[in-house]
């Protein structure tokens, strides 16, 4: 009952297939990253839902941005958990949108208190969440860079 070696170029071809293992982003520290994104997806969804249903007229822009953040966190969570080139691109897009959102909303919330009378997930660069919303996309982009898919073979 021995195993037969794989044909040349097959699954056990050696270094040529080694980058395929890099295509997965849901192993090791990636699991923790996905878990944090999942927690933020759930908490941002709950917060935005409650705010929109109970006091939307008080700060519509802030609450809609909280809902948008929830969608971004949800997309990031799902795409980070999936493997493949398409999901990698979705992950990069979601995390970049998150980073831009945190920076823009963070800056606007500092200087435009009229449109941001109530906090969002990204207000003041995520101060209400221990600045994790600011650090999370940076860590996400580092992880994605390290786990980027190998270039396609011609």
What does this structure look like?
27% of the residues are buried. Helix 1 packs antiparallel against helix 2 (60-81) and helix 1 runs antiparallel to helix 4 (132-146). This protein has helices spanning 29-55, 60-81, 85-111, 132-146. It contains four helices and no strands. The protein is mainly alpha-helical.
In terms of structural class, how would the helical and strand content be classed?
mainly alpha
**Topology pattern, helix = H, strand = E:** HHHH
Shape: elongated
Output mean pLDDT. 85
Largest sheet: none
How many helical stretches?
4
What is the distance, rounded to the nearest whole angstrom, between the alpha carbons of the first and last residues?
37 Å
Q: Which residues form runs of ≥5 with pLDDT under 50?
A: 13-20
Strand fraction equals under 5%
Number of beta strands: 0
Gyration radius (Cα, Å) is 20 Å
How helical, in percent, are the residues? 55-70%
């Amino acid at each position: 009952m021995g195993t037969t070696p794989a044909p040349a170029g097959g699954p056990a071809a050696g270094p040529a297939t080694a980058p395929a293992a890099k295509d997965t982003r849901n192993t090791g520290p990636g699991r923790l990253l996905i878990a944090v994104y999942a927690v933020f997806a759930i908490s941002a969804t709950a917060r935005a839902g409650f705010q929109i249903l109970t006091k939307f007229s008080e700060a519509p822009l802030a609450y809609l941005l909280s809902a948008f953040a929830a969608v971004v966190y949800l997309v990031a969570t799902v795409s980070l958990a999936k493997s493949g080139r398409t999901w990698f691109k979705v992950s990069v897009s979601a995390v970049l949108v998150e980073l831009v959102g945190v920076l823009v909303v963070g800056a606007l919330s500092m200087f435009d208190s009229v449109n941001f009378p109530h906090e969002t997930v990204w207000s003041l660069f995520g101060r209400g969440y221990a600045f994790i919303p600011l650090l999370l996309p940076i860590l996400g982009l580092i992880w994605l860079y390290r786990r980027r898919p190998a270039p396609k073979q011609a």
